[in-house]
Amino acid sequence: MRTARWIRAHGLLMIIGLAAMATVGVRIVTDPQGDDRSAEFFRSYLLTSILTTTFCWIAAFRGPAAARRPWRWIAIAFTAMLLPQPYSVVMAATHEGKLPLSGILAALTGRLAWAPLVLVGLLMFPMKSLTGRARTRFIADLTTVIGGGFVVSWYFQLGPALQNGRIGPDALIVIGFPVTDLALIFGVCALLMRNGLTSWRGPLPLFLAGLITYLAGDVTYAHLIGNGPMTWTTPLSVTLNGADLIMATAAAMQIMRPGEGTRPKDQEQSKIAYLPYVALLAGYVLLLVAAAREGNLYPWAGLAVGIIVMTGAVVLRQIVAMRENHGLVVRDHLTGLANRLSVAPALEAAVRRHRETGVASAVLVIDLNGFKKINDTLGHEAGDALLVTFAEVLRSAVRGVDVAARVGGDEFVVVLDRPGDADQALAVAQRILDRAAGSPTPIRAAIGVVLTDPETDVVTVRHRADMAMYAAKRAGLGRPELWHPGLESATGAADTFDAEILAATAAGQLRLAYQPIVTLATGEITGVEALVRWEHPERGTLLPDAFIAAAERTGAIDDLGLWVLETATRQTRHWQDEFGRRLYVSVNLSPYQLPSPGLTDAVLGTLAVTGLNPHDLVLELTESALVHESEGAAILEALRRADIRIAVDDFGTGYSSLRYLTRLPIDILKLDRCFVSELNGEPQGSAVAEAVIRLAQALHLDTVAEGIEVPAQATELTLLGYRSGQGYHYARPLSAEALTSVLRVSGGQPDGETVGMPVQDDVVAGLMGDPQA
Question: pTM here?
């Protein structure tokens, strides 16, 4: 069964192989001499012409209309050349290999009709449209190439024929063939220079190779006729028969893959741009050869050498300029990476390699986090410097065979050439993230990864990589995301959620809850922590861990954070006025807000509007936000100078380095609830809590213990030296109205009625969220 399928798939190529053995192979083996050469050539050429014509007609009825049209004209061309050939074969056989005038005219008519029809077919292939300067450049380059072809034809064909002054069928061949050959050169060059080739593989490149081989045989044929009686030598016969077989193979490939070659390439092919220079070189080489054949070095040899040297220098200069211009087109001028124009062919090549070799490549789409804010606040120079730094990270993290490109403001694409498997591709992506985070200016990014699929087109592959990148950005975990089918539905839901969080503040869907912070020794309320809630119209009340990541990703965190700050400080000032007592408020700050140079002005402006004393505001940040101290140290210093206090939230659960405690302006350490829950009266249970209080005392920092649930924990913390704490033992997060009642009724001491301790509610943590104190 497998053998039968292989035969069906390669049957046409097998036929061509048999024809090659019957024509080219036999000619090489037998190498006939004398008049037998002509008779044998016409017989073999008839066979290859029948085969090529048949395959071209089959190709003319396969595939879309854009693919059928050119092959139809090519099939007509080969038919026109085939029709007179049986007569020529008969004439050669009956006249002992010598073709009479009628046979010559028949063959000449078919050959002269063949060339313009092939030209029409070539021009029918889809080509890039040209306008303005591009058209002028194309005409100039095409004229140069045709001029080079004319020089070759003049030297080998036209010149000798006109010099001999012979008029007759042979002279008509000598003159007619070069003219039609120049027309075919025009068609080939027009197709190449106007991006008619979708790739260097496939039917069309192979057909052009056969056509160029045929043109070489034409030059040889006309040159031999112009210099004496025609003899069909074995090399000439093999060249012409071989050209036919190459074009037949191209037609067979078109039959097997009828959809290829139906759309021109948008990007110019740099190798084709050298065609005019090759033609110029050919002309000058023939000029030098002609001067040498004269046998007189003066004056032609010296003049030829001088012209060649001068033109060569000009050509070299043009080539250098052309390569520089090409670099400007395909390279990003800021980072030096490839640009958007280079990504498309790299993706196409990756998908094509997968189809041909069965080995997948990988595509990484990378988006930098917070880049817009850097541009808006620090200026475009700082943004540009960040892009250059990240470009260096990419260069160091990928191989030379991979393509790294900047395709947008802060968007990058990497095409990994056959990395091995998905795990290897993810390892490269993670390496990029790690090196970016460890650069002198720490950079955070989201990376989506997808493997190529032989059944999937380039557009779909890129779309999947985008979906994976957005999934990584939504997760906010600092690791790459590999595409999987489940992302299709998740992306739509996430887009809707992102749009809703962007509108939540303006729609009035946010509210604050306040959890009291008490003095452990007396239970008196000395402060509150403001915790945001989202009253979603369909999902109900959402806690911060359900929406803060989306707010950070979409940029809604700025408006949300300012709303929390203004609402909390205004309410705290109201409590101070109503109860005539000192009370502070603790507000969580997102790490996405910290790098903003406008943060200090925004906070101070809010305090000025609400009337709260700056000393009564505590801004809480997690350890992960503080570890990259260079990003926010100056802002924290400015806030400290304004008498605003800084607290480290969930202390002990983040980075192990304590360097930032001595370098940054920190006032309060908040012991994470996980260490409070370990307190059991034993030394092992209190080891971390005791270490933290000793560290705080050594650095003259205040402390707040979070997550106090039972009286025994409060007692043990007091004995260890902690002065303040919060948790369900004292009160769960309360609305402003409920906390007002507590302050009014109990004089600032929570009673047991506000406690209630469902454990499932006690697992709320995160930025602007319940630390579950």
Answer: 0.46
